[in-house]
Input
Amino acid sequence: SESNKTRCLLANTALPSLVAEVCAEHSLTWGHLSTGCIYSGTRPDGSGFTEKDPPNFTFRQDNCSFYSGTKALAEEILKEYDNVYIWRFRRPFNSHPNPRNYLNKVLSYEKQLETENSITQVDEMIHACQHYLTKQLPTGIYNITNPGIIKTSELIELIQKNKISDQAYAFYSSAAEFYADAGRTPRSECILDSSKIMSHGIPLTEIHEALDRALRQWHH
Output
């Protein structure tokens, strides 16, 4: 609805812009949680998008969800400031069930769309953000996604391996079938490169290992 869009725009774009202005006036360094969902796909060579690549899933391309569009607008504004960290995460997960946990979202659907994505282990992301603030590392944009690429089918295999669900999952034959049947808004399916943040000595677990650990420790 229009009211939801207004709230989304205020929360995702207007508020960060205001915080940036106030923090700049008082010479304060701060961190903004952005998203990797301002990208779609991969770079032309098949590698993940780096922090230097311009977003391609935004209002400017007219191909995105309203959420992604507002988050991209915020980045356009915030990157003009030199006192802000812009931390991008994607489809956060850990071992604690929660409606916003990516694992819960996958578990709730019997029919899946096969995709390849980068995703983020929440506890490692929090540690990374704290590390940047306490160690006063260089500000700027950082992709905080666990290294590697996860396919939906690989995640389903890990879920079944760890006996989290005995559900018989089916897959859509194509993205077109998914959007015709279940998709409401355009979804970001993308790969991000996390080598920049790891070059600062911040550990991030390989994605399959991180998912397997979360599922082994899953709190039923």
